[in-house]
Amino acid sequence: MPEAPMNSTMLETRDVARFFDVSRPLIQRALSGEGRRMLRAVDGVSFAIPKGTTLSLVGESGCGKSTVARLVVGLYGPTRGEVMFDGRPLKEARADPTQRQRMQMIFQDPYASLNPRWRVRDIIAEPIRAFGLLSETAQIEARVGELLTQVGLSPLDGQKFPHEFSGGQRQRISIARALSSNPDFLVCDEPTSALDVSVQAQILNLMKDLQKQLGLTYLFISHNLAVVRQVSDRVGVMYLGRLVEVAPAETLFTTPRHPYTRALMDAIPDLEMTGRQRIPVGGEVPSPISPPSGCPFHPRCPLANDRCKAERPDLVVARGTPQTEVACHAVEEGRDGGPQRQEAVAAG
Q1: How confident is the model at residue 270 (pLDDT cuts 50, 70, 90)?
Q2: For residues 211 and 208, what is the distance between their CA atoms, to the nearest angstrom?
Q3: How far apart are CA 99 and CA 96, in angstroms?
Q4: What residues have CB less than 8 Å from 98, skipping those under 6 apart?
Q5: Which of 4, 70, 123, 191 counts the most CB atoms within 10 A of its CB?
């Protein structure tokens, strides 16, 4: 099979949704006359990740980021929509072992994602054995040593148990395990959130170097905007299970268009004391069990009008910033002031 060009799409989601039934037991509902309650964790998310690039998803806790991560690796099945992996439906790809090994996941907590009873060499070798990549013990041990060296550890560390390592070292072991099946695509679910800031930088630099060396494609999940800016080619902003803005990383940070994205940027401390104008966002995040009508952000949005309360906006190309897609009636109608006004505000 000929190799696909580097600019082709590695992963695509098409109107993917995932709902969870959080209803009380049937008898209790019957006695109280209560209907079923569905939690809309993800509600119609569409994006594409070109090969060799990184798409990051950001947003507040509970917005659906980690659910998207589990959907794209097949840990959850979608309630609606479809996930495509390298041009094939994910169900077909997951059924093919040669395709399944091309996708791996790095989990958030390095203390919980490694088996404490296994030595590191066995943890890293497990995908090699599971996919039948190597059969001889000497070959497997040599490969494990290569992977440990690749992530900045020693081959001798394979004899140890996870509890003998620091958090950053454990995450390096998790990365080595993810790389052991020779994947093309990695889902990184907040891989640095449990680490100290100095260790975060080391892990991020390691991941960027590995991406260049191996041509990896990343879906990166995080709530840390500084981390996202460092690693991303494009960034998607999620709110209440939906994408509200998708843009190149630098464009998003210099010219955010959606009011929610601008609120996230305003939350970053102004260390240079530029005196830039900030627009506070009040209220609480609505419940995903009973989301508001129309735009999900309208109860907290300073630009909301009657149309926002009644009509759900689609993710479309933003006026004035052709590389940005935004789901906002105010941006579509020009009520946000446009990118020129925002650039002037950012400049103080």
Answers
A1: low
A2: 5
A3: 5
A4: none
A5: 191
Report the alpha-carbon distance of residue 275 to residue 140 in Å, rounded.
58
CA angle 185–187–192, rounded 5-degree value: 130
Closest alpha carbon to 178 in 142, 227, 214: 214
Q: Give the list of residues 6+ apart from residue 52 with CB closer than 8 angstroms, or none.
A: 6, 211, 215, 216, 217
Q: How far apart are CA 173 and CA 116, in angstroms?
A: 13
Closest CA to 283 of 298, 269, 294, 293: 298
How far apart, in whole angstroms, are the C-alpha atoms of residue 160 and residue 123? 11
User: Does pLDDT of 340 surpass 60?
Assistant: no
Task: Determine contact, residues 236/243, Cβ cutoff 8 Å.
Answer: yes
Report yes or no on whether pTM surpasses 0.90: no
What's the pLDDT tens digit per position in 282-327? 777 888 898 899 999 999 898 899 999 999 999 999 988 889 999 9
With CA atoms as reference, report the closest residue to 206 among 58, 86, 106.
106
Domains by residue range for the chain, with CATH:
8-102+184-200+211-232 (3.40.50.300), 115-182 (no CATH), 254-348 (no CATH)
Among 119-133, 146-160, 207-221, 329-343, whose mean pLDDT is lowest? 329-343
Matching residue, tokens 């690749």: 150
pLDDT per position as a tens digit, 75-101: 999 999 999 999 999 988 888 888 889
